[in-house]
Amino acid sequence: MRGNLAKAVDLANLQRLRHAPLPRSYLDYIGRNLFVVLLTLQGLAAFALITLGVIVKKSRVARNVMQPRIRQEIYRAGVALLPMFFFLALALGFLVVGQTVSALAQVGATGYLGSTMVIVVVRELGPLLTAALVLARVGTANVIELGTARALGEVEALEAMGIDPVQYLIVPRVIGMSLGVFALTIYLIIGALGSGYLFAFLANVPLLPWDYFHQITEALTWLDFLLLALKTMAFGFFIAIINCYHGLAQPLRLAEISRVAVRAVTQGIIACVLIDAVFIVFYLAS
Amino acid sequence: MSETIQRPPALIEMEAVEVAALNDSSLTVLENVNWSVPAGEFWVVAGPHHSGKSDLLLNAAGLVAPAGGTCRIFGGDTREFGDSRIAERRRIGFTFADGKLFNHLTIAENVALPLRYHRQPSDAETAASVAAILDLLELTPSAHLPPGNVALAWRQRAALARALVLQPELLLLDNPNAGLTPRHREWLISFLDQLWRGHEFFGGRPMTIVATTDDLLAWQHPDRKFAAVHATTFSVLGKWGGQEFSGHPGVRELLMTPPKADETRPEPAPGRP
After folding, report:
1. pLDDT value at residue A257
2. A-chain residues within 8 Å CB-CB of B96?
3. Are B65 and A1 in contact (CB under 8 A)?
4. 3-state secondary structure of B65
């Protein structure tokens, strides 16, 4: 239990590298930063594997404690953000979708409407925007909460009670955020497409609603649904892993939490872009 | 020799243990610790602030693996104290110096957490068990409050309730009387004494207790055993007033330390910040 956590969070090498004397040449500087990146990747990979192991191995342990905690995290990373996403879907529809529909109609290219909407909203904008907002709203809070818990010794308190800190603190957040990003992306896409048509309708674009939705459904394939589900869950999973890793692993003092929160958000955004790039390869290959 | 044979089995055994600091594993705070705590004994480990008492206790509980040597709890090496030996973890109750209660839970929920996690009782059974132990520790008025809203003395009691809710055989307390008023300190030591002799609430079964302290006088008792940590050295002193006792530099330092000014403040009632 403690061994598992310690393996993932043993950052002695990383801290030594970060606090080493200033390098004498640019080559040293680049080399040091490369090692920091590699060690961070190693730590994140170990942390992700340990978390997956705990999810599988302890799925039936203490369900009466874990189920309410998972529900609470789903609420926090999903249901509680619905009003904000409702507003965002309206804004996205008016600002992006509606204008795109209007511009395509002006040049007589409404035949491309379905595929454009699917590529822009369903494949890219919807998932990425959702991931970025969940990272900002919930991910940052996770780093601060876990960092505070770590600095105040709550992790040791859990271990003293024989409670696995990864199971109690990390697993609910990972599951909650994975499901939250997936569900919110679906709502955002539906809302944006709906409000986009509303904008086009108000702008007198000569396009009937059933034509608009027929084109979109025609452009969607079963692969879009599958990859959308996988991509959004991957976004949620890795955002949660990065936030929890930095929150739980690094700040041993309260003063370090803000710096670690900034690092976690930056790495979360980079991770989402990289995951997105991997999925683009899938889309292009299919 | 015959005395050794008759002694009950040791719950904690340390052989040549090197104790590292919790937040800096490269820093050794205690060297060559040789210590055995048989079942049914009441030990007090004394030492000044930052002498390594808490780190020693974390090692003794198996929460931190020793930097060197061997530490055994219930006969098992603490280096292998993982998920496979979770049943043994439930036999140990541990309280931290500042309680370390979870602020997102109420006092009652904090106390219920280990019970619900390990035993999965029904809600009614949990409520009954928690209410009983809160009543025993006079915590009922604070049950619905978050830990941040109650005074330190009551947080310490809540941490003790949380450690006792699984009815452990071995109770480890890290500086439990730190910051307590004389009234609370007296209550605590008297309550621990009842646990050690066998409290009726726990079926009269005697509990093995190890407590650390920097206030040695408060624990004075002819039946308790004492050890001291001083300048990276752990020394077993035996019973109060023995030969090793008076000559130990750490003991002399502690006994000359006057009580802190904030220890004489009146304590607010339970449930009051």
Report:
1. 84
2. 153, 156-157, 160
3. no
4. coil
